[in-house]
Amino acid sequence: YIQERKMFYGGGRMYRGGYGMETFDEQYHCFSGAFSDKPQLEEGDKILLPSSAFEQLARLQVEYPMLFEIRSSKGGRTHCGVMEFTAPEGQCIMPFWIMQNLLCEEGALISVKNVSLPKASFVKFKPQSVDFLDISNPRAVLERQLRTFSCVTVGDQICLPYNDKRYYLEVQEVKPADAACIIETDCNVDFDAPVGYQEPTRRPSTAGSASSGGGIEAPEPIKARQSDDENAPSFKPFTGSGQRLDGKALKQNQAAMIDDTPLQASNSVPTQPAIPAFASAGRTASGNMSKNPAALLPPKPSAKFKPPTSKWAKTNKVAFTGSGHTLK
Fold first, then answer.
1. Is the peptide bond before 293 cis (omega within 30 degrees of 0)?
2. What pLDDT score does 66 carry?
3. Own/partner pairs for 298-302, CB < 8 Å, 24+ apart?
4. Distances in Å between the alpha carbon of 85 and those of 56, 70, 91, 193, 292?
5. Pairing mode, if any, of strands 151-153 and 67-72?
6. Distance (Å, rounded) from C-alpha 171 to C-alpha 239?
7. Distance (Å, rounded) from C-alpha 150 to C-alpha 158?
8. In what order do the strands lie in the sheet with 188-191?
9. Alpha helices in 87-232 (DSSP H)
10. Side-chain half-sphere exposure of 83, counting CA atoms within 13 A
11. CA angle at 22 for the pair 20 and 27, rounded to the nearest 5°
12. C-alpha distance from residue 232 to each of 39, 222, 229 (Å)
């Protein structure tokens, strides 16, 4: 009895060779994770199988981790792992995005077969929306989320829940085979441009737009402001005319002296301010002030002062020639 029991249960080779049962291959009715009390099922690629499937797999010498190939009646094909053997008999509970890849409806008949896959060395994904670019560090998010996955298959669209949103990535390329295991492996990951993404267009630089950004055309408000600045008259300092304090017109030599004086640049060091003529008269050759206080006073006006107006020129009157009176 013990020998027969060992041949049936423990002698897997004789069981497989004698009766021709080499792999696990069963058919189940598939249902989404909404039929089970396991919301974390949607975050990975693992399925739930009935307990009878565990009994059959225990009799076989299968490789761990257990990986399965799922096929639908509509031609869909993918690979996945198993989470638990707690599904009702005759049913297979799987993530809803796997059912979408298989083109299956609730209760559709599928085929589940255990397989052995090589370790993945390279995987290339293509996001299905430009919203994936809003993630600050997509590689870190993908690396964290792929910890709940067992394998990847070319053509599948995996679902990545992140920040209360679901991002779908299409598996475009897998090496060394079209389906590979990603458990405890060193795998390189690459991303393709998302669906609907357009590269920013760059216009060739011209002489007019070279100063606005090296070939990139400036916005309309900036271009309008630049044109206004170019048309505005340039500022020229100290362009006024000189006036005398006594109201008389400038002499010919004084006007020529003002015209011949060079303008000082705005960024140059300011020079010594000009000394009035009456102040220079009180200085000696050595630059010291003269001891004569009369030399510091301005020159006295002439006895007959004629303002440069037509009224005073016609009457020829002398200003301030009246007599003074006291109040006593």
1. no
2. 92
3. 301/246
4. 12, 16, 11, 39, 120
5. unpaired
6. 75
7. 12
8. 157-162, 165-175, 122-127, 188-191
9. 96-102, 138-145, 220-231
10. 21
11. 100
12. 69, 15, 5
What is the residue-wise DSSP string for 235-257? P-SS-S----TTSPPPPHHHHHH
Question: Per residue in 135-156, pLDDT tens?
Answer: 888 888 888 888 889 999 999 9
Q: How many CB atoms lie within 10 A of CB 152?
A: 25
Query: In the chain, which ranges are E strands?
Result: 25-32, 46-50, 67-72, 77-87, 91-94, 109-115, 122-127, 151-153, 157-162, 165-175, 179-181, 188-191
Side chain identity at 48, as an amino acid letter? L
Q: Where are the alpha helices (DSSP H) in the chain?
A: 2-5, 12-19, 51-58, 96-102, 138-145, 220-231, 252-260, 277-280, 310-315
Q: Quote the pTM value.
A: 0.55
Residues 123 and 189 sit within 8 Å (Cβ to Cβ): yes
CA gap 133, 136 in Å, rounded? 8
Which residue has tokens 């509970």? 93
Residue 57 CB partners (closer than 8 Å, separation 6+):
24, 66, 114
User: Rounded to whole angstroms, how far apart are CA atoms 124 and 173?
Assistant: 5
Residue 200 has pLDDT above 50, yes or no: yes
What's the residue count for the chain? Answer: 328
What integer is the mean pLDDT of 305-328? 63
Residue 232: per-residue pLDDT: 66
